[in-house]
Each structure stands twice: as C-alpha cells, then as structure tokens.
Amino acid sequence: MLNLKSILNDNMRVKFDFYRNGALWYSTMNGFQFPVPVKTLAGTTILKANDKASAFSYYIKKYYNELAYKKIEEYALAKEKNKVVKEKEVSKYLQKIEDKEKTIEDLRKQLDFTQKLLVTEKGEKQQLQQQIFLLSEDNKKINELETENKTLLNTNESYIKENHKLEGEKNELQKEIERLNNRGFFARLFNK
Q1: What is the structure's pLDDT at 39?
Q2: Burial of 27 (0-12, 13-18, 19+ CB in 10 A)
Q3: What is the DSSP string of 171-184?
Q4: I want to staple 26 with a disulfide (CB 3.0 to 4.6 A). Which of 14, 70, 145, 179 is the partner?
C-alpha cells in the first residue's frame, strides 16, 4: 500500500475513472483509487475530471484511513485466528506430552515388574536349562529308536515279501501235490 505523503505530494494529480453506487471514483497518477460520495457534495460543488490531488485530500485521507483500518482489522483478526490455532496446537502438544508422561510411567511400572520377574526367572532359567539338557538326551534316544524302528520296518518289509514269495511257492507245491494225488488215485482206479 502506498504511503499518504506519496499520494498527496504537490505534483500529484487525480483523474475521474467511473461512477458506481452513489460514488465518483477517482485515481491518482501512482494508482491509488478512492471514492467521492455524491451525497457529501454541496449542490454547487464542481468536480473536475482531472485535478490536483490536494483538492481531494479530504476524500483521499478518509479512504486511506478506512483501508488502513481494514488492514489493521484484518491483521488483528488473522493474528487472533493464528493465536487460536497456536493455542490449539499448544493444547495438542501439551496433551501429547501428558500422554508421553503417562506412557513413561507405564513403562517404568513394566520395567519394575520385569526386573522382579528377571530375579524370579534366574532360578527358573537354570531349571529350564537342565530340562533342555534332559530333553536333548531324550531326543537323541528317540532318534536312535526311530533309526532302529526304520531298520526293523525295512527288515519286516523284506520278510513280508519273502513270505509272499514262499506263500506263492507253497500254493504251487500244493497244486502239484494235489495233481500228483489225483494222478495216483486215477492210476489205482485203472489198476484194479
């Protein structure tokens, strides 16, 4: 925003731009635009389309101050809004700190409990190590028994195969005996 001195210097001129909503709008050579409300003018007032800025100093100062006040108001509102936002952020941050402190307290309790457990578990650890040793010995025995069992299963399987083979041979021999017996029976029959 331009400063008031640069707008109202002795060489500054204004020109008429347009009429809107009961105001004549003028602008200075350096681009500052301001309204001149028609209702504030006396019946014989003459306003030129192009004139010295000092002739409009009342309207320029009034509008300049309105804009400055609006800017200050906007700045104050933005600052207040920013303050509210920061207060919310601070509140959230404080809540996070409170939550973390609670978490730290919970962790301390867990640590105390864990330390007590560790003292208790040292004795249990030795017992567990002894049990693990015994289990590993048992595991070795189980492995040996499994190996022996596999060997026995393989032997049993070969015996079963051998047994089937012998059963087949036995059946063949029984058929042969039966055939021979039948032959002997018929030979005796024919000999009589």
Answers
A1: 86
A2: middle
A3: HHHHHHHHHHHHHH
A4: 14
pLDDT at 1: 60
Asked if 77 and 31 touch (Cβ cutoff 8 Å), the reply is no
d(C-alpha 186, C-alpha 157), whole Å: 43
Model pTM score: 0.41
- CA–CA distance, 32 with 133 (Å, rounded to integer): 95
Alpha-carbon distance 34 to 36, whole Å? 7
Is the pLDDT at 188 greater than 80, yes or no?
A: no
Spatial separation of the C-alpha atoms in residues 14 and 27, rounded to whole Å: 5
| 164: Cβ contacts below 8 Å, ≥ 6 apart | none
The DSSP code sequence of 125-156 is HHHHHHHHHHHHHHHHHHHHHHHHHHHHHHHH
> Nearest-CA neighbor of 6 among 32, 36, 26, 45?
32
Looking at residue 164, its pLDDT comes to: 92
